[in-house]
Design brief:
Blueprint: H1 3-17, H2 20-34, H3 36-52, H4 57-70, H5 86-95, H6 100-111, H7 115-122, H8 125-135
Helix pairs in contact: 3-6, 4-5, 4-6, 5-8
């Protein structure tokens, strides 16, 4: 590298890094990078508390039953690999027909994904369409 260019870069870096606002922003970015896992856990716990305090317990129970039907083993990392209880999902569709928005909201708060996306992943195209027709 050309020594004049290197000197210019060094002088520019020194000017930028001597600004206290730039340094504060860099420190915040580094802290966010290192503590992002803990921040996600705190957000998830806050969402779970909201989920648990929901006034309509039936909504919470139906949201949990949807998750259990799509993940029969109960192991979270196996959700895409273990089978789906399609009969249970059909029964839940009829139960959630009148209250779907509240159930979908509770599901999203608890599991950080939309209920519609989970059902689209779990069911084939025809089953998903029939499920969607039932709930709407």
């Amino acid at each position: 590298m050309n020594p004049k260019i290197a000197k210019g870069v060094a002088i520019g870096a020194k000017k930028v890094l001597s600004n206290k606002y730039v340094m504060i922003a860099l420190v915040i970015l580094v802290l966010l990078f290192f503590f992002r896992g803990r921040i996600r856990k705190m957000i998830r716990k806050r969402n779970e508390k909201k989920f648990d305090k929901n006034e309509t317990q039936d909504v919470n129970q139906i949201a949990q039953q949807y998750r259990s039907a799509s993940n029969p083993s109960g192991v979270s990392w196996m959700i895409d690999f273990d089978g789906t209880d399609e009969e249970a999902i059909d029964k839940l569709a009829y139960q959630s027909k009148n209250n779907f928005n509240a159930i979908a909201s509770a599901y999203r708060q608890k599991f950080d994904e939309t209920l519609t996306d989970r059902m689209r992943a779990e069911l084939d195209t025809d089953d998903f369409q029939s499920w969607h027709n039932i709930i709407t």
